[in-house]
């Protein structure tokens, strides 16, 4: 295998660290690289959006409970959280192009398998596998950008990369809504296949299989095992907390195991000859704060927005297409806001744009917490617009201070940590806020249950669980199997609908309030961040 390096020799001056790496032909061209990775991340972003729109249809078709639907999301997040950092290391070791293309092919193939699922268990299993391939895509995409763009243009590239994600997010609700409403929920996964093929074609042509001079040729297998098991215990414990209870021995056991394994992993990293995650990375204050900010952002966004589709379809009675249109302002604004955020961070540094984004996001969450049973388009548009403008600089800025404050030879690992922080935050958000909503429903619904529908206190435990599960998804429990086979008249049906809607709103409003507080806490942390050095101390090679 031939290599072309830009590393300095004794007879040549050192390379300009702000210059892009050498390349052959069009391979490795910065803007073509951005185009190729944009297709890959758009596929992942589109998948995330359409799954949210499809959740109610999946629930009806596969008889999925709220816990099942959380697993459709959390199984994917769990696989990502476990695999992202090792995937970043694989990109540093074997070349980011190779791992990226494997991820693109696998993601498209598993999307097809998901569409063929005949049960919710099968769907969840393929979503987990899809998460593994998604883990190969995401950190290598950022690694490719980091290795292709000069430092003074990297923020702009990350902003455009974020705009590509937002474009897919903007298209997802509309396309997904139309497909769910007029075709089937399975069809929303088919659209990943042509995008995956396009990603492979452009990627093979445009990407250079870049590694970094100084990147280790060895893999810390013990570190991979320790970190993967620790991440699994952490995310699994959080996910199961809603079912088992936060104070249960089951949940506490997994949390304790995660802490112990993370401590052992950290100790091992100080002794390993070629550590998976050098602990010196975390001595950089901005790098560590960036990870926490990414977790906070994902916690609020994934956790709170998990329920917005249930609110719009269940409480407001909108169709999937109408739900997509209602959410479109947020997605379109994110599409515009991401490159603007990148430019602002280049001019001002990350601190001010991130603080502004956190403030806007906290305000948006507070406004969403005030939604009632019948919110108009205007009532949701303002908070969605604020949230779109708020999330963009947080995403770009946190990515900048994580990836930019790591040395170039650890760009894949840093990108994996950035993505892992997002997935852990998302899993925490859906699990914690899901548990908050479920607990609120369980505490409030018995007092609001209409007497005409039966004595709630004397209902079998399983029946109450079914009713509360339906209410926690925003849908009134009007099916005969949930009502013990009873056929109710109009007034009783309307009484159940009102009790269900107001109870769900109490839970959702509490979830948005917690999300708003989380964003507000992030403002304090953002006061202490600084911009990264981008390319200090390493140069890229093409393999």
Topology, element by element:
Layout (H helix, E strand, L loop, with lengths): L3 E2 L24 H33 L3 H29 L1 H20 L4 H29 L2 H32 L4 H4 L1 H15 L3 E3 L8 H24 L4 H21 L15 H21 L2 H8 L4 H29 L2 H18 L8 H27 L7 H38 L12 H12 L17 H37 L13 E3 L1
Antiparallel strand pairs: 1-3, 2-3
Helix pairs in contact: 1-2, 1-3, 1-4, 1-5, 1-7, 2-3, 2-4, 2-8, 2-15, 3-4, 3-7, 4-15, 5-12, 5-14, 8-9, 8-15, 10-14, 10-15, 10-17, 11-17, 12-14, 13-14, 13-17, 14-15, 15-16, 15-17
InterPro entries: EmrB-like, MFS, MFS_dom, MFS_trans_sf
Keywords: Antibiotic resistance, Cell membrane, Membrane, Transmembrane, Transmembrane helix, Transport
GO biological process, one term: response to antibiotic
Notes on the protein architecture:
A three-stranded antiparallel beta sheet has the order 1-3-2. The longest helix has 38 residues, at 411-448. It is built from 17 helices and three strands. It is an all-alpha fold and 543 residues long.
CATH superfamily of the domain at 26-219: MFS general substrate transporter like domains
Oligomer: single chain
The CATH class of the domain at 26-219, by name, is: Mainly Alpha
Question: Structural class, from helix and strand content?
Answer: mainly alpha
Membrane topology: Multi-pass membrane protein
Transmembrane segments: 31-54, 69-87, 99-118, 124-145, 157-176, 188-207, 219-239, 245-268, 289-312, 324-345, 352-372, 384-408, 420-439, 510-529
Biased composition (Pro residues): 11-20
Subcellular location: Cell membrane
